Amino acid sequence: MPVILDGKKLSQEIQLEIKHTIEERRINGKKIPHLAAVLVGNDGASTTYVNSKIRLCKAVGMQSTFIHLDASTTESELLKIVHDINQNDDIDGFIVQLPLPKHINETNIIEAINPKKDVDGFHPINLGRMQLGLPAFISATPAGIVTMLERYQIETAGKHCVVIGRSNIVGTPMSILLSRNTNPGNCTVTICHSRTKNLKDICLQADIIVAALGKPEFVTADMVKEGAVVVDVGISRLDADNEKGYVIKGDVKFDEVAPKCAAISPVPGGVGLMTVVSLLMNTMKAVELNN
Ligand code: NAP
């Protein structure tokens, strides 16, 4: 049976560690970390994500502020709010939940965020610093995966890692992090995308597969070699005839792939939970950096 890379258990352990650190800061009269989250509009999934981030802040004793703006908020109004938060010394880190409504240019907003408070790690300065191996905020999902590999002591050095997906928030940073001269890291990385030919043959050569393409149950058993480590990043909500009316599926066909693996992360209960806790870890970094 494979090792299950249990994001729920691991994120709970890390939450406890953060809680203790915050308690120690409180006892020592140090600043309590403060995360702000800005949400524009009422997109269902985004509201769920922001609520879970705020809930987790409260659970670990972190201060939080939820700024919920109307969907009609203009780009210049949002920029003004971003500038205000940049200037607010009490807020150590903040996120602007993506995606933003179509009339707002996301790049303009991301570039307006003070990189020292950019706990989502989306600012070009943080992405560039990460690429150079300099201290940086690393975006929450890749950071969560790296933490997961580290804590489960997955051997990465010299391994061939195939990353499926090249988005700026998951696939590309993941490929950079795993190819760096660090631990976890030192992989030989192949990054695949929708134009990749012979994806199955490439996957069959992989010691580690990171599936981040957003296609439910895309990775099947015939694409995975015996003993591989599979990290499933995908989150797709599919209609279902159950109480909730939907099920969450990953990018990997878990039931048939798992028996071939040395280790595999489930969906739900895997990378998603690590992502939220990584945001808190970045906020802990921010309070140290900014005070
Ligand atoms: P995205 O921006 O849509 O990027 C998807 C990537 O997959 C693109 O690079 C695309 O290639 C590639 N792709 C699409 N179809 C493919 C195919 N048939 N074969 C090979 N590559 C293919 O998605 P994302 O934001 O990276 O998210 C990916 C998935 O992870 C989604 O399910 C998302 O919900 C999930 N996610 C989860 C977390 C978490 O916390 N667990 C966080 C973020 C995202 P092209 O570049 O050629 O279009």
Question: Mind explaining what this structure looks like?
Answer:
Helix content is 41%, strand content 18%. By secondary structure, it is an alpha/beta fold. It has 2 domains: 29-114, Leucine Dehydrogenase, chain A, domain 1 (Rossmann fold); 140-271, Rossmann fold, CATH 3.40.50. Strand 2 (34-40), helix 2 and strand 3 (63-69) form a beta-alpha-beta unit. The longest helix is centred in the first third of the chain and has 21 residues, at 7-27. It is globular, with a radius of gyration of 19 Å. The site of NADP nicotinamide-adenine-dinucleotide phosphate has 25 residues, from helix 10.
In short, what is this structure?
By secondary structure, this protein is of the alpha/beta class.
How do the strands and helices of this protein lay out in sequence?
Elements: E1 3-4, H1 7-27, E2 34-40, H2 44-60, E3 63-69, H3 75-87, E4 93-96, H4 106-112, H5 124-132, H6 140-151, E5 160-164, H7 171-179, E6 188-192, H8 199-204, E7 208-211, E8 228-232, E9 236-239, E10 246-249, H9 254-257, E11 261-264, H10 271-290
Parallel strand pairs: 1-11, 2-3, 2-4, 5-6, 5-7, 7-8, 8-11
Antiparallel strand pairs: 9-10
The protein binds NADP nicotinamide-adenine-dinucleotide phosphate.
